[in-house]
Amino acid sequence: MMLMLPLWYVVFLLSITAHEGAHALVARIGGDDTAYLGGQVTLNPVPHIMREPFGTVIIPLLTFFMLHGGWMMGWASAPYDPLWEERYPRRAAAMALAGPLANLGLAALGFMALKAGLVLGWWEPLGAGFDNLVAPVEAGNGLADGAGRLLSVLMGLNLVLFVFNLIPMPPLDGASVLSGLFAPARRFVFLLRSNALGGLLGIVVAWNLLPRLLRPVYEFVLGMLW
């Protein structure tokens, strides 16, 4: 388990940094410099860690050990101007969508690298676990084994982040996309956001929906990979 900790944490930091950096970049393009001025338009994880040390350091490490090295959870955030969101709802929707799309891009990168390795004969399908989808053809090749595990986590974790964040429940990005594109949804999202328990309710609902939404997506991707 300890050998997998650095691998998981590197992929986790890359994934959430890309997610929040994409939010910040698209917000700046759309006219909101809040996150840019906070140093969030970057793939350097340090500004994101400084903003959310609890969600980027403590919780990921804690959940990794609690779940026996099988998963890592946490969060980061990019600030934005609520008045800008109210004035430009479609731009705000684009900002919200940018984060999950960044995760989709990382998942695609992991998928393509794994596929290339399988085609070239570096790995063979294994499917033993979420973080171990392939095994090196050459037994004892530690470098190939480590690379396969890293790419497995990169693809899988970012698929989860993509699907989870697009569930249209506050405080997830899907709710901001929905309210930005469809005016009738704004009141519903506003009511949940303004309620002290709204965010918690959204997370609970999304967490229960995630397995049902993720399974067909993940199985489809594995079918294309193997």
From TrEMBL:
Transmembrane segments: 57-80, 101-123, 150-167, 188-210
The protein's required cofactors: Zn(2+)
One annotated GO molecular function: metal ion binding
UniProt subcellular location: Cell membrane
Every Peptidase M50 domain range: 10-187
Topology in the lipid bilayer: Multi-pass membrane protein
GO cellular component: plasma membrane
Primary residence: membrane
Domain of life: Bacteria
Annotated family: Belongs to the peptidase M50B family.
Record protein name field: Site-2 protease family protein
